[in-house]
Structures are given as C-alpha cells and as structure tokens.
Amino acid sequence: MIWNISWKNVWRNRSRSLVVIIAITLGTISGIFVAGLMKGWVDQRTHAAIHTEVSHIKIQNPQYLNNEELKHTVPDYAEIAEFLNQSDEVKAWTKHTKIVAMASTSRGNTALTLKGINPDEEKTVSDLYTYIVKDGGNYFESGFKNPIVISEKTADQLRLINYIISQELLDSLKTLGAKEQLLNNLEPLKDQRFITEKKFKAKLESILKPGQIKEFGADIMKLAKNYKLRSKIVFTFSGMNGEMSYQSFRVCGIFKTANTMFDQMNAFVKEESIADVAGFQANDYHEVNIILDDSDEQVNAFRDKLKSKFPDASVMTWKEIAPDAGMMADFMSMYYYMIMGVIFFALAFGIINTMLMAVLERIKELGMLMAVGMNKKRVFSMIMLETIFLTLVGSMAGMIIGGALIGIFGQVGLNFASVQEGFEAFGWSAMVYPNIDISFFFGVTAMVIVIAILSSIIPARKALKLNPVEAIRTE
Amino acid sequence: MKKSVLLLGLIFSFAFANAQNATEIIKKADEKWNGEKSSRGTMTMTIVRPTWERTIQFKIWTLGRDYSMTLITAPAKEKGQAFLKRETEMWNWIPNISRMIKLPPSMMSEGWMGSDYTNDDILKESSMVVDFNHKIVGSETIDGWDCWKIEMLPKPESAVVWGKVIRWVSKDEYLIMKSEYYDEDEYLVKTELGKEVKTMDDRKIPSKIEIIPADKEDQKTIVEINEMEFNIDIQNSFFSQQNMKRLR
After folding, report:
1. Domain boundaries, position B160
2. A193 near B CB under 8 A
3. Each residue of B79-114: pLDDT tens digit?
4. CATH code at B218?
5. Are A293 and A172 in contact (CB under 8 A)?
6. Interchain CB contact of A144 with B (< 8 Å)
7. Which residue, A434, A470, A424, is CA-closest to A48?
C-alpha cells in the first residue's frame, strides 16, 4: 500500500522528478565509467607485471638484490628445480641468467640487463613474445647464431632504426592519395638513409610544406621506419671471474610493451649463447620465475612454502617486486567506492532539495492523511520510500547505460594516444580496455539506498513536524 | 687439365700470400705503435665541438702492450687525474675527491675525457690484428706517402662493432696514415688521420692524429704528440694503483 503510494508520488510532478533522476543517472554513469576505466587500467598493468615482466613468484639469491654480481646465483638451484617440477600448484616456471652489460653498435651505446633465457620455456611464463612489433622480426625463430631480442626503445638508442624513403613507400603514398607534387618533393630523398627520427623529421620539414606534413607526415614516418634486423650488437661486461668480456649478438626481434622502463632495461638472448663467455656453470642462474593461479592467497601460501623449504634463497611475490602495480591493485577496489561516494554525496543535496519541495508542496495533503489516521511511522516511510524510488530509478538507468558503455569500450578499447608517452613512462598502457566486476553494481545499489535514506531524513522530519489541523487549513 | 690445376694452385697460393701479406702489414703497423718495449711521452689533445673547444695535456708511460699509465697535466681542473691500464682492466684516479674508480663496462664506450676517443679503443687496440681479415685493395698516396690501402673485414662472431675498416699504411716505415671506420651498411662512421710525420727518438711517427666523426658536423678530436721516447727503463711496478696517486 505504502509502496504503491510512494511510487505514484514520484511521478506526480514528472518534470521535477525527471530532472533529479537524470542528474543521478549521469552521476552514476560517470562514476561507473571512471571506475571501469581505472579497473581496466589496473588489470592491464597487473597482468603485464605478472605475465610479461616478473611472474607470480621470483626466487633469487638474497645477495643479488644488494649487489648485482654474477657470482650471486640462486642457491640450491637443483633442489628448487626438482621441487617445482613436482608441485601441482606450479603452472609453469623458468630460469634466467642475468648480466648487466654495455651494449654498443658503431653509432650508439646503452646499458642493458641481458637475460639468458630458454625461449620455449620462457613462452610458458612470459607473454613477451606476443609483443614483437610489426616488421620487427621474430622471437628467436631466425636460424643465425647468437640471436638477441631487444626493445624498440633500445633499438632507437643503438641507432638500429633507420628512416628510408623507398620506391615502395612512394607507391603506397600514391595509393593513399598523395599528390604528384608531394612525390616529386620526396624523390630526391629516395634511398637516402637517416639514422635518427629527429634528422629525418628535420629533413622532411625542410622540403615539404606544412600542409603536406599535416596530411601525410605521420604516414611517411610510419612507412619510412625500418628496423635493422640482423645488425650486430657488441656487449661488454664483467664475467664470473671479474674480467672484462665481450660477446656479439645479432638482432632477431624487436618488442615493445606498454612499460617504457621495462623496455629500456631488458634484452633477451638464449642462455647458451652467453654461458661460456660469462663463465656460467650448469645450474648457475640468477632468477627463477614461477607462474601459479591468479589468486593472492595461493601466491602467498606458495611463497611461504618455498621460504620455509629454501631458507637461503630470497622468495618474492610480484607485489613485492613491482610494488607500484601491487599497491594499485589493492588500493583500487577502495578507490572506486570513494569516487562513487563523492559523486553521490554531491547528488544527495539535489535529492534533499527535490524532496523538500515535494513535501512543502503537499502540506495540505499530508495533513489530511495524518488527520484520517496515518501514523507517523507510515508518513516517514512513505517519504523515505519515495526518495529511494527516485534515486534507484536514476542509478539503475545509470548502471545499465554505464555497464553498456564499459561493455562496448571493453571490446573496442579507449586510446589515449595523445598522452601515450607520459603514460608509458610509468608502465601504463595508452590503450585501455575498461572492465568492471559485477559485485561493484551491488555495491553501488547498496550505496544508493543508504544515500537515499540519509537524504530523506530532513524532508521526512519536516513532514512529521506538521500539525494536521494547521496543515489542512493551509492553501 | 694439368696446366689449369697448376694455374689454379698458383692463383690460390698468390691469394693466400697476399692475405698473409696484408695481415703482416697491419701487424707491423700495429707494432710500430704498441710493439716497443716501453715508451714515455707527452701529448696534447684538442677537442673541437661546434660551440666550444678545449685542450687537454697529458703524459703517458707504456710497458709492452698490457700496461699503460696516463696523467693529465692541464687544464688545472683535471690536473692530477690518472688512468691506469693493466691488461684488460682500467682504473681512474680522481684526486679532487680522492677516489679510485675501476672503469665499469658502462664507461668503456664513452669518450675518453669527452673526446671522440673511446676507452674501448684504448683497451682493444690489438683487436685490429686479431679480429679482422685483411686484404690489400690498392695503393694510394696520402700526404705524400705511398700507402697500401688495406680493407679489413671483421671475422664472423668477433666482438667488433664495425662493418668494415679501411686503413692506409705507408709502404716504408709502416705508418698508419688514415683509417676509415664503416658501419654494417657500409656508411662511414669516423675517419682517423695521421699527419705531420716527425722523427722522435730515431723513429718516424705521425705526430698528429685527427679523429673526425662522419655524421657530426664541426666536430673532431686532435691528438698531438709533443715528444716521445722509446725503450726507456721502466718497471712493471710503476703501473700500480699506489703509483697513480703519487705521479707528478
């Protein structure tokens, strides 16, 4: 009975109710969408942190953490390997040798961490092999000796990315609709090699008109980019015995992840191509990477198990190794509710205002209801229910639309390309696929009801304070 | 048939002798510099950059190939800094902060004192003989010296960043008059020129060496040898970390 009256009351002044409902809908949409965006982001970052960069659990020599010397290899490696092979929880595991080395080519040099891996095992632990860029070779499939996989960033630092205007480029520009004039302008540069993006850009800017650059600049840059696969990189490092050692590698593949820091630091080679030069013995490894199920409890439990079994080794979870990603994952679930809370807090004032007006408008009617014997409890719950209906309608609509938006963008992805560089410097992808937990919707619904109840208190009190006799007489 | 086999054999042996010859030449040229028992000298290095220029003076002592000591004597800011090379390792003594630094791999490819000369060049001099296949490709006259033009291609798997090096070595005296360093796509990266051949301690050597990076305009490094003595009396113990701090 009360429910019915309340529901009908909501729609008595349709336009006023709709204004509040729309405000709540928009608030909910934005809250849900921002939360979905954040979650999508955090999920991508944690996924990358685990499945590309560090894996769930990493075993190292505790001394290696303080001083990255080659002699600090994983203690009791043979026992650890056997234990991991027998454990059911372990989905996959692999091991690396690690050398901090100086990479040089004839034109550039940079410091890198050289990781000696077993490509087949590595693929089960890290999905890095899926990040090979277009035209950037492959992941240890080329047959030549001493292959190396480096990042695009490293390739740039070592000047292994050239810009060349080839006949092919001119042809594809033509199909893109470039005018004869542009092609003629580019003709003199044909087959000239530019070793840096900066020089190539400067040259283009000097021979092309601003209009042409605006129209085709990006395409020319993209098409002219040329990875110098099979180039030689010479690495210099101190080997096991502390002596300076040299080893040359040839570029086999070029990868690019969303994390510039990771890209800048790491290069991958086959473990056997580095073992002899560096003086590694069998079972000399610097880290063991383990993949388990994606559950925090399991990861922590397995870490504790490893710790008690191998007290000499340092056993760390991904949250300890990449605390930024770990912290975000923990903090975010709280953060979504904080965003929602702030939005609803602001909306509450709108709701209070609307309900107050609804009460003041109906003083006579409320007096009448009280006079015919409706008790205070019922009056209070009528107004409260009215508020709840009002807000629930708005938030439901908001959740449906917001959920749909997340669903759509979750498929298509949102591209923040204009600020890509800044994001990627922190390891966050510029392409975001929002997603959201179903539980969040329940949480929002509960929050909406609480907010509705709280904001109905003032209008309801107003109604309760009415004296029926006086109220009936008001015009 | 027999004749053609003979001819073929002759060609092969000639080619082989030729290759041997080129390696011999590079080796002799290398020994001209590094093959002396010991040496002492003073040098001036001028670093030329588009907007500035600076000059560094230093003294240098060597014993065989494996030991060398360098002491900066000017400008005042760097005075007293010493570099010690023992076999494949290098140390740097910086008196201002009283610190001895063992040069890590990361510093090897950096220019020495900001010049176009890298620490790696200093450490790996002998690699020019060992890590390359040499071939005489012609004769040319450089600065009035009749030279062999020798093409040097790195051996596969060798730890050499160059794709090709061309060296001009004078027919008498085996002086390195010019070297060109190419990357793997055969683009010139830098040129080294030996100039002003002078007689020092009864030996003829180019007294001025210029290093010119190819793709950086108005940039070069010039090393001038002011004086040089060879086969001096110097002990292994001279090349020690303790001595680096005492040198004047």
Report:
1. 3-246
2. yes
3. 888 888 887 778 888 888 888 888 776 666 667 777
4. 2.50.20.10
5. no
6. no
7. A424
